[in-house]
């Protein structure tokens, strides 16, 4: 079994007149978070942690802030894409831990609800999600919300029964296609989401 860790960070300024959404939860507060999307600082940090864990780039490479399609978008869309990248790479979540750094609102009274909502969006148990909060003491950033997230992933077990793979290649040039026919066109983890086959044909004769 192999394991991967990921880390994500995000920040958004508070802004009057917009709803506050954190961790996919609508929270009663006089101000919301400014952003191209719904400004969900927590889901953005978790999305980046997931993408980073499988070397798939970052939220901005998938959903550029310059793209009008993501204006006002609900951030669980970004999270869903990151979860798909994790699954495609052959991993699943072990646990997620987070820290919210913000003066207001206080997070402790809603931490249980937040944990359940984030767990639901991630498809994990609430006990596999950590929600913590910090007052930004001495940082002079009382009008900003910051989120940090770490994730631990483990590889998904393949079937216990080994599958025998036997085939022949007519000519050396066909070897890539022959191997692809045996193992499929799956992909390994690669830098910034670049697709590459999950096998290395250099050693084959
Ligand atoms: C979620 C979205 C939806 O549009 O918008 P917001 O709601 O946060 O505004 C975006 O995905 C939010 O993308 P985010 O990644 O936070 O934005 P930025 O920090 O501006 O980074 C945009 C892109 O520029 C890259 N970047 C950023 C800073 C830097 N010095 N060099 C870079 O190359 C980042 O890697 C990213 O790929």
TrEMBL record:
Pathway: Isoprenoid biosynthesis; isopentenyl diphosphate biosynthesis via DXP pathway; isopentenyl diphosphate from 1-deoxy-D-xylulose 5-phosphate: step 4/6. InterPro entries: MECDP_synthase, MECDP_synthase_CS, MECDP_synthase_sf. SUPFAM superfamilies: IpsF-like. The keyword Metal-binding applies. Signal peptide: none annotated. Homotrimer. This is 2-C-methyl-D-erythritol 2,4-cyclodiphosphate synthase. The gene is ispF. Belongs to the IspF family. A divalent metal cation binds at residues 10, 12, 44. GO terms for molecular function: 2-C-methyl-D-erythritol 2,4-cyclodiphosphate synthase activity; metal ion binding. Its cofactor is a divalent metal cation.
